């Protein structure tokens, strides 16, 4: 008999993750406890987070993976289709694939994209940034897009400038999509394709312009 390799989270684990993302979106990651998550998830055992995930950090890592996996799969499919059309995609194509799959989550029903707030919070805290980057480093499509973008930018920018701009772009994408999410949840932005489409496309144009701007005269000479 073969071993059971099904690693999908169970019902209790999903309830805990969904409770955590709701609380983190409302109170901030530093204002949420494992006990509170268990209570919100309807778990009588206040140690349910430790039982299912080992720790609160384990819960956050599992939540990132749970919500990021569909995004990464969509991005991989779109990247494969893009490379099948052209072996040398434009920088706008590459940035578009960095942005659109994540922004598409905003059109999901209310309550299914609150994790975007979590991602933005993780990037602003040293310890949690490491947790986020561990997950991101495992995303093959993200790594491929970064390498392709670096190859194009490397023809016109110093290597250290290229790396810094791509790093900043990654952060900017997460924070911008999280801001749109907050506006949607707050009622300031409609959850509709029309409202999001021009913002996404303009963000891509704006990002490409920033990536390709001439380097400062001292760029590449200092760390």
UniProtKB/TrEMBL annotation:
Top-level division of the source organism's lineage: Bacteria
User: SUPFAM superfamilies of this UniProt entry?
Assistant: Homeodomain-like (SSF46689)
Q: Which GO terms describe its molecular function?
A: DNA-binding transcription factor activity; transcription cis-regulatory region binding
Q: Does the keyword Calcium apply?
A: no
- Pfam families, alphabetically? TetR_N
HTH tetR-type domain: from which residue to which, for each copy? 16-63
> What are the record keywords, sorted?
DNA-binding, Transcription, Transcription regulation
Kindly provide the name given to this protein in its UniProt entry.
Answer: TetR/AcrR family transcriptional regulator
Originating organism: Parahaliea mediterranea
């Amino acid at each position: 008999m073969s071993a059971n390799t099904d690693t999908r989270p169970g019902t209790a684990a999903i309830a805990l993750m969904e409770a955590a993302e709701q609380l983190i979106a409302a109170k901030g990651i530093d204002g949420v406890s494992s006990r509170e998550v268990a209570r919100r998830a309807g778990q009588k055992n206040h140690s349910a987070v430790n039982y299912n995930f080992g720790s609160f950090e384990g819960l956050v890592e599992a939540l990132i993976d749970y919500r990021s996996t569909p995004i990464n799969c969509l991005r991989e499919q779109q990247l494969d289709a893009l490379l099948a059309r052209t072996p040398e995609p434009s920088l706008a194509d590459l940035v578009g694939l960095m942005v659109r799959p994540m922004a598409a989550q905003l059109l999901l029903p209310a309550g299914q994209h609150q994790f975007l707030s979590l991602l933005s919070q993780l990037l602003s805290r040293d310890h949690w940034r490491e947790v986020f980057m561990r997950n991101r480093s495992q995303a093959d499509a993200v790594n491929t897009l970064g390498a392709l973008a670096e190859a194009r930018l490397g023809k016109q920018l110093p290597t250290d400038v290229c790396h810094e701009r791509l790093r900043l772009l990654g952060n900017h994408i997460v924070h911008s999509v999280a801001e749109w999410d907050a506006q949607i949840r707050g009622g300031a932005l409609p959850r509709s394709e029309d409202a999001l489409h021009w913002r996404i496309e303009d963000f891509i144009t704006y990002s490409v312009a920033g990536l390709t701007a001439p380097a400062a005269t001292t760029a590449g000479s200092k760390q």
